[in-house]
Amino acid sequence: MNLVTEAAIREHAALSTRRRVGRRHQSASKVVAIIGAGFSGTMAAIHLRHALPPDHAVVLFDRTGRFARGPAYAASDAPHLLNVRSVNMSALPDDPGHFERWLGSLAAPAPGETQVTEAGTFASRRLYGRYLRALLYEEMTLSGGRVRLCSDDVLGLAPAEGGWRVACASGREVVAAAVVIANGNLPSSRPCDGIVFHDPWAAGATSGLRPGEPVLIVGTGLTMVDLALAMHGHGFQGPIIALSRRGLVPQLHAAPGPAPDRKSTRLNSSH
Ligand SMILES: Cc1cc2nc3c(=O)[nH]c(=O)nc-3n(C[C@H](O)[C@H](O)[C@H](O)COP(=O)(O)OP(=O)(O)OC[C@H]3O[C@@H](n4cnc5c(N)ncnc54)[C@H](O)[C@@H]3O)c2cc1C
Question: What is the pLDDT of residues 6-18, one digit of tens each?
């Protein structure tokens, strides 16, 4: 009769636990969840689709039901411009001309969607949102269902076997091997009383204003310019007062000069 020692039993238990853990990892979820489908979440989905093994899926959540936009590139009723030249707005770092080529491939962008200036061409933010959506939908088509969209508000994450349990407002739960949190800036927690808007992008912040009554904007940066343009777009003719601590306004983009000579910009050192 073979004697089974206690040490052998412990070793056997440890081995089967290791095997169970191994199996658990093998059968772990092959889903990566991304919370937030603004620029960061959208591009994470696209890059992960290429980086992950072919049997893995990416689920992209957004609570607004709008994908590949976020507040910056949302559809708006004013053609607010990107603050970066279109030549520098490719979403693909390995293909710097990608956005420019996409712009060139459009039949004819609506008037105001691109502005050609001495400093370069600037596209509207909502047009850039269209670009991001085109990239995402192309990726979804190519992925054969490996990139999925989920219109839901993610309320919480909890550790689960093989990863994380993603709990949504609708009651939906998804177990994911990994989670990317790309939820952008948190909105202001201060309530809006219909007069003071803490979120300048809130619906109603620039429309339905009482004609002729002054509007105060706190800050004189690019958001101030966008808001003033939006108010004018809504037909507001009254005074707009912009308040600044330092009295500065955004600088114009200078026309791009030639690339600096690498030798002359080298730090003055003995090397
Ligand atoms: C008005 C504005 C103009 C800008 N203009 C420019 C520009 O011209 N050029 C430039 O380079 N950058 C610009 N930016 C900066 C821009 O915000 C960033 O470049 C980038 O878009 C930020 O993307 P993000 O994905 O990190 O966040 P966001 O775009 O904020 O996206 C976060 C997403 O997460 C979702 N979300 C949040 N919480 C949850 C949750 N719990 N469950 C599900 N979904 C959730 C939100 O609905 C949102 O869609 C601008 C920003 C703003 C606000």
Answer: 343 234 333 333 3
